[in-house]
Design a protein that fits this description.
Belongs to the CPA3 antiporters (TC 2.A.63) subunit E family. It is built from five helices and three strands, in the order H-H-H-E-H-E-E-H. By secondary structure, the protein is mainly alpha-helical.
């Protein structure tokens, strides 16, 4: 029941955010009615499909996820500056590399967050997903620090389920 209410609240907030300015004139009652029907239909379908659970509606790790997004934003800014420094030199001295970044996340969502975080960070791209990690293309060898990947991997794991590792 908690996940159904949470899903409904998230969909209402999303719909209100994306629907634009509120006016009570014109076609607004029709738009509002269709929005309510779409939310009810979506929640009903998820219940019918029996997929309203912790994985479908990840409310628990929301705070950890927002914290992770803040940290990732800082890392993206740092990586942008590093790429800028690298390409603005009079003589470009890039040394591209393909490396394997180990992925020790507990969930598929954690692996997904980690792989996408690598790709979002300028200078690195997740090229292939493997059982034990990812194949990553780095623009320069300076972007291949194993400690950086380990930190991002650990943070993405916490962001995906809201719990620190105990092992």
């Amino acid at each position: 029941m908690f996940y159904g209410i949470s899903l409904t609240a998230i969909l209402v907030a999303l719909w209100l955010t994306l629907s634009g300015p509120f006016t009570l004139s014109g076609d607004y009652p029709i738009v509002m009615g269709l929005g309510v029907l779409s939310i009810i239909g979506t929640v009903a379908l998820t219940y019918r499909m029996r997929i309203v659970d912790r994985e479908t509606v990840p409310i628990g790790p929301a705070l950890a996820l927002f914290t992770y997004w803040g940290w990732l934003g800082g890392e993206i800014v740092k990586a942008n500056l590093a790429v800028l420094r690298l390409v603005m030199k009079p003589e470009i001295e890039v040394e591209p590399r393909l490396i394997r970044a180990p992925a020790e996340q507990r969930t598929d969502l954690g692996r997904c967050v980690f792989a996408n975080s690598i790709t979002l960070t300028p200078g690195t791209v997740t090229v292939d997903v493997e059982d034990d990690g990812f194949l990553v293309h780095a623009l320069d060898k300076s972007f291949t620090d194993p400690a950086g990947f380990a930190e991002m991997g650990a943070r993405s794991d916490i962001a995906s389920d809201g719990k620190k590792r105990t092992d």
